[in-house]
Amino acid sequence: MVWGLIGASTIAAEHMIDAFRSQLNGEIRWVVSGSASHATAFAAQHNIPHSTTDLDTMLSDQAVDAVYISSTNEKHLPQAIAAIAAGKHVLCEKPLAMTIMDAVQMVAAAKSKGLVFATNHHLRNAGSHIAIRDLVANGKIGRVLSMRVYHAVHLPPHLQGWRINDASAGGGVIPDITVHDADTVRFHLGEDPLEVTAMAVNSGMGNGVEDSVMSVWAMPSGAQVFAHDSFTHAFAVSGMEIHGTEGSIFARNVMTQAPVGDIELVTKAGCQTINYSNHNLYGESVRRFIGAIKGSGTPAAIGEPAATGEDGIKSLAIALAVREAAQTGSRTRVRYGA
């Protein structure tokens, strides 16, 4: 698989480049950045043979099979549409776009050309989250009553920038972290929130966007979900709890990019430590994406990406509903369609 990187980003540098190269014959041929000097330096640092500021130059290279988009959020739509028009498969960072209509357009364009389009929701690739999902699906805690996601962290200085200062680029804790909660809740509970309430604040880390939010979500089954997301909590621990009629799951330090954390299952039989695979989250995401490409267009497809474009649309819809609820002070229905 030959890749082109659209965005010379921190996540590409710290996680995705190794994930692409860990696959059989994985090759990165191009990096595209809005800054020529940054593109050149990034390519040299990561041994990427070609760099450019012109997306069309990279997309005209017939050797490139797929692109990974990790630019700022407002750029995702035009970059994805251009890549799809050039016949490239697309793995896109979350949130997919700034609006549901834009995200739907991206996914539909790929589908119309028979290309694989995936959302890089990394958490559902973690061994910890796969183990938690299996506990729920296998009835280990009975009927789910509630879920609590605590994803308040401290955004390190090198990641701040537009995330805390630029609403037009898609900044704010809701599109950055709440969107992850949305996918995680859907992954574990197997259902989509109906409506949400929320309160958000800007406590001074940046300007013009929220840096902390708390929200409550109503699920079709009657379960309730509470999510707490923040950029400003330097000493908090992330994790989640799922409570059911027959038991509870306590997962600590699992809302992370590393394969770490502790999981306990508590039932009337006692407390049980749950073991899980410690494979690389991003490597698994890329593996599933490549498997979907190899299976596309054949009668017996190998499978879907870990998170499809449709998954990305739904996580974006939930995040946008949380933001609307926080801004209006009203209980807000999640609108999944364009």
Name the poorly predicted regions.
297-301
Radius of gyration: 20 Å
Query: What structural category do the secondary elements indicate?
Result: alpha/beta
Number of strands: 15
Number of helix segments?
10
**What is the rounded distance between the termini?**
33 Å
- Beta-strand content: 15-25%
What is the string of helix and strand elements?
EHEHEHEHEHEHEHHEEEEEEEHHE
The overall pLDDT average reads: 94
Oligomer status: single chain
Largest sheet: 9 strands, mixed
Share of helical residues: 25-40%
Give the spatial strand order of the biggest sheet. 14-13-12-11-7-10-9-8-15
- Global morphology: globular
Explained architecture:
This protein has 338 residues and is an alpha/beta fold. The protein has 10 helices and 15 strands. Strand 2, helix 2 and strand 3 form a beta-alpha-beta unit. The longest helix has 20 residues. It is globular. The two termini are 33 Å apart. About 1% of the residues have low confidence.
SSE blueprint:
Layout: E1 2-6, H1 10-21, E2 27-32, H2 36-45, E3 50-52, H3 55-59, E4 66-69, H4 76-85, E5 89-92, H5 100-112, E6 117-119, H6 127-137, E7 144-152, H7 162-165, H8 173-189, E8 195-201, E9 212-218, E10 224-230, E11 239-244, E12 248-252, E13 262-267, E14 270-273, H9 281-295, H10 309-328, E15 332-333
Parallel strand pairs: 1-2, 1-4, 2-3, 4-5, 5-6, 7-10
Antiparallel strand pairs: 7-11, 8-9, 8-15, 9-10, 11-12, 12-13, 13-14
Helix pairs in contact: 1-9, 4-5, 5-10, 6-8, 8-10
